[in-house]
Amino acid sequence: MSATSGIGVSSELSAEFSRAVEDRQTRFIKVSIQNESLIHDLSIPMRGTLEEDLLQLGSDEIIQDNTPTYLLAKLDDPPAEWLVIYYVPDTAKVREKMLYASSRASLLKSLGSSLFSDSIFATSRGDLTPEAYAAHRRHVNAPKPLSASEQETADARAAERQAGGLSAYQGSRSRTSPIGQTIGMAWAADLEDAVKSLGEGDESVLVILTIDMASETVVLHSTSATKADEVGAALPSDDACYAFFAWKHSPSRRDIVFIYSCPSSCPVKHRMVYASGFNAVFVAAKTLLAGSLTPLQSRKIETSTPSDIDEAFLRSELDLLTTSGSGTPTDSTGNDDEKKPFARPRGPKRR
Fold first, then answer.
1. What whole-number distance in Å separates Cα of residue 238 and Cα of residue 87?
2. What region holds the ADF-H domain (predicted)?
3. CA-CA distance, 68 to 86, in Å (whole number)?
4. Which residues make Cβ contacts (< 8 Å) with residue 160, sequence separation at least 6?
5. Preceding amide of 78 cis, omega within 30
6. What is the pLDDT of residue 174?
7. Angle 9-15-16 from CA coordinates, rounded to 5°
8. Rounded distance between C-alpha atoms, residue 70 and residue 30, angstroms
9. In b/e form, how buried is each residue of 256-294, taking b as 16+ CB within 10 angstroms?
């Protein structure tokens, strides 16, 4: 924080500024520092808009090339607010530069800082033209620069709003359950038939689902007879998807496993849409498969590396027992020896 000069506002300047605030007919008030005081130097009435009146500042009677000054400018919108211009040319003396720089806070505090909603730092007359002021306003109204993490967060929120059907942020009142937002997402007719067919048959079958972003429809990507070790290779490696794997993991047992795959390279918007529809797709499939011979596993599998999915991965995630060559279930460690009963410890020897 820079030190203040201790220079105060003269009573004449305070009275002139109060009058200008009340009558709303003054466009510019020129303020100078003389005899260790901020004084009223000149008042310029309104002639047109602020942009048009800025042309008057090109006159040598108002500002000089080598002399610093303050200019208080009344805004058009809102009309009750003011713009303060700090004009300190590069060619001014060092002492004057320091004096005007250290007196800015005193000027605003004495006149009422709440009345000043904008400020401009000018070093030449070229900074006070209508074009320069328009460029200044574009800069002020431009979006604030964001870091990489802040930009990613903003993109994710925008994708979330778009996925939820919100054109703009509407606060916490507009938030609804992700399930409720996606239950109405349409399913292609052939997709429903493909999911229903998983409840029948005796083979291992993989059905892959994707979302058509343009129509917001869940569509059938592919259906194929697939072994457990081939599931990872069958899933898309660069985009998200859902999959239902009807897996015969033992001679007498066949289950349907729900898989949600979302690689890290997947676009942010796709990640948000697929994540919001995750539970809805599972619930819809559970309804379609109700009463089928092959049950839908309640445990869901999520992965960001689809190539990792193989038989060992599935058994580990689902806590399924391995099977021996004879088809008899064994524990996952392969130890099928009969467990010995607890041996009662011997008592002490008699003396």
1. 56
2. 6-138, 182-319
3. 8
4. 272, 276
5. yes
6. 43
7. 95
8. 6
9. bbbbbbbbeebeebbbbbbbbbbbbbbebbeebbeebeb
Phi then psi for residue 21, to 5 deg, are -65, -35
Residue showing tokens 């510019």: 28
Q: Extract the tokens encoding 9.
A: 């506002």
pLDDT of residue 341: 63
Question: How far apart, in Å, are the Cα atoms of 270 and each of 46, 155, 189, 216?
Answer: 55, 12, 23, 11
pLDDT recorded at residue 153 = 85
Residues linked to residue 209 through DSSP beta bridges, in sequence order: 220, 242
The 10s digit of each residue's pLDDT in 249-269 is: 888 888 999 999 999 888 888
Euclidean distance between CA atoms 64 and 43, whole angstroms:
16
Task: Determine the residue type at 143.
Answer: P
**Low-confidence stretches of the chain (pLDDT beneath 70):** 1-3, 5, 163-184, 321-344, 346-347, 349-351
Per-residue pLDDT tens over the stretch 19-71: 999 888 999 999 999 988 999 999 999 999 999 999 999 888 899 989 999 99
